[in-house]
Specification:
Blueprint lengths: L5 E6 L3 H12 L1 H8 L3 E7 L15 E2 L2 H5 L4 E4 L7 H10 L3 E4 L2 H18 L3 E2 L11 H7 L5 E7 L2 H13 L3 H10 L8 H4 L2 H14 L19 H9 L2 E13 L5 E13 L11 E8 L3 E8 L3 H21 L22 E11 L4 H11 L4 E8 L11 E8 L2 E2 H12 L4 E10 L3
Parallel strand pairs: 1-2, 1-4, 2-3, 4-5, 5-6, 9-16
Antiparallel strand pairs: 7-8, 7-10, 8-9, 10-11, 12-14, 12-15, 12-16, 13-14
Helix pairs in contact: 1-12, 2-12, 4-5, 5-10, 7-8, 13-14
The structure holds NADP nicotinamide-adenine-dinucleotide phosphate (NAP).
């Protein structure tokens, strides 16, 4: 060993923290040899000192976070939530410790402030585990592709929703049955709101966009739609056209209608071609698809949550910051010194759409509908019609389901088209509007 041991303080010892602590203790020599210095787990901060924590020496446990941070070389925040996590991270940074965190919610709300604090202190704030668990995605986006121009990051970053949609498609279940099964199997929490309404994915989209485009994007700038309104019928309609439905987090450089260059980060369920790489991602797995100008298309796939997989990413960050401490270097780049691009409204994105309508099945209806699309400059690629009413229904009561796929169109134009369609006599209802991604 070339230097004194580096002191590591762990804030939190729950699902992830326990795995990190155990590995730091049990793999001390192997990890130390990769750094060039030993890591010494010097304190583990918890709420409940009396709780059983097998394998963890009791003398490491404390409820005094401030003292545990003082003198630490590396602070690992695995408490979760906003406070006291934010205050403790800022204290650790200003005291000269490098910080590793898995806290996507905190980063999505305060990314710019936290990174600036790390830059000001000349230390690192690493967060590989905050997006997609074990999958190395933060380092590839922030470091490996730093010389390239990332144009789009599109991923399945929430395992709970992917499991639910996967089961709905494979088993024909409705949403509530798939959700309750996910809860029974431990893939969904008792309060699944953050997952199924897309907020967890939105936090990850904010972090990914901030890093990929060197522009701070906070969670309140990420429009989000969850999966609770997805029906077996929508999945069957998508499948009939060779598509599958996935909840996607999308971060993209875009150009607004007035020529403004900016970024978009958003989360919604989208239909993607069944042969797209992301369509093959089943169960609770995660995958992130990255497009960069020189590298082309890259895909990262693996376990997006769980104690051990998440600990793997945390330990990678610990080794990375420890190596820099040993070498005396601080970091590779400063945050926020590149181009700060505006975060553009979702109305400015362009993509393809699949609109499903319940319409009167009588002559002239289709032409009235296509006129509405043309009037809003939205070009139709495909129309598929199926009869909804049973034989024997009076002629003037016949209804049909129309599935319309568009060419690429601006979201604002599509929204205006759908509003106008709702006003047509011949349209009994707009059954669904889904974006088509990955074409
Ligand atoms: P967890 O099981 O709830 O553990 C939280 C730990 O923090 C517990 O040890 C708790 O102490 C401690 N703690 C919480 N508030 C505290 C306070 N005010 N003072 C002192 N200690 C406090 O959480 P987790 O699942 O390990 O998640 C940790 C972080 O990793 C979160 O930011 C989460 O979003 C992120 N993450 C988790 C996963 C995953 O699969 N679990 C995946 C990716 C990222 P006690 O033990 O005494 O209660």
């Amino acid at each position: 060993m070339t230097t004194d041991p580096l002191k590591v303080t762990l804030l939190g010892c729950g699902v992830v923290g326990t795995e990190v602590a155990t590995r730091l203790l049990n793999r001390r020599t192997a990890i130390g040899s990769r750094i060039g210095a030993q890591l010494e787990l010097s304190a583990v901060v918890v709420r409940d000192l009396a709780a059983e924590r097998p394998g963890l020496p009791r003398e490491l446990l404390t409820t005094d976070a401030e003292s545990a941070i003082a003198g630490a070389d590396i602070v690992v925040e695995l408490m979760g939530g906003m406070e006291p996590a934010k205050t403790l991270i800022l204290k650790a940074l200003s005291a000269g410790a490098s910080v590793v965190t898995a806290n996507k919610a905190l980063l999505a709300a305060h990314y710019a402030e936290l990174m600036a604090a790390a830059d000001d202190a000349g230390v690192r704030l690493e967060h590989e585990a905050a997006v997609a668990g074990a999958i190395p995605i933060i380092r590839p986006v922030g470091d490996s592709l730093a010389g390239d121009e990332i144009t789009k990051v599109m991923g399945i970053v929430n395992g709970t929703t992917n499991y639910i949609l996967d089961q709905m498609e494979k088993e024909g279940w409705d949403f509530s049955h798939a959700l309750s099964t996910a809860q029974e199997l431990g893939f969904a929490e008792a309060d699944p709101t953050a997952d199924i309404e897309g907020h967890d994915a939105a936090a990850k989209a904010a972090v990914l966009a901030s890093l990929a485009f060197d522009t701070p994007v906070s969670i309140d700038q990420v429009p989000v739609e969850g999966i609770s309104s997805i029906t077996p019928d929508m999945i069957a309609t998508a499948a009939a056209q060779g598509f599958t439905i996935k909840l996607l987090a999308i971060c993209e450089r875009i150009v607004a209608a007035d020529g403004t260059q900016g970024v978009s980060a958003r989360v919604y369920p989208a239909v993607i071609p069944a042969d797209h790489a992301l369509a093959q991602v089943g169960g609770a797995f995660n995958a992130v698809f990255v497009e960069a100008e020189a590298a082309g298309q890259l895909m990262f796939y693996g376990q997006g949550a769980g104690g051990a997989p998440t600990a793997s990413a945390v330990l990678g960050d610990i080794v990375s910051v420890a190596r820099r401490k040993v070498l005396g270097g601080r970091g590779m780049y400063e945050h926020g010194e590149g181009r700060i691009l505006p975060v553009l409204d979702i109305g400015e994105i362009t993509t393809h759409y699949q609109i499903t309508l319940d319409v009167a099945d009588r002559p002239g209806v289709l032409s009235r509908i296509t006129e509405v699309f043309a009037a809003h400059d939205v070009s139709i690629e495909l129309v598929q019609q199926t009869r909804l009413t049973e034989p024997g229904t009076p002629e003037d009561l016949h209804a049909a389901k129309l599935v319309i796929a568009t060419h690429s169109a601006r979201e604002s134009a599509l929204a205006a088209t759908v509003d106008a369609l709702r006003g047509l006599d011949a349209v009994n209802g707009v059954l669904s509007v889904l974006r088509i991604e990955g074409l």
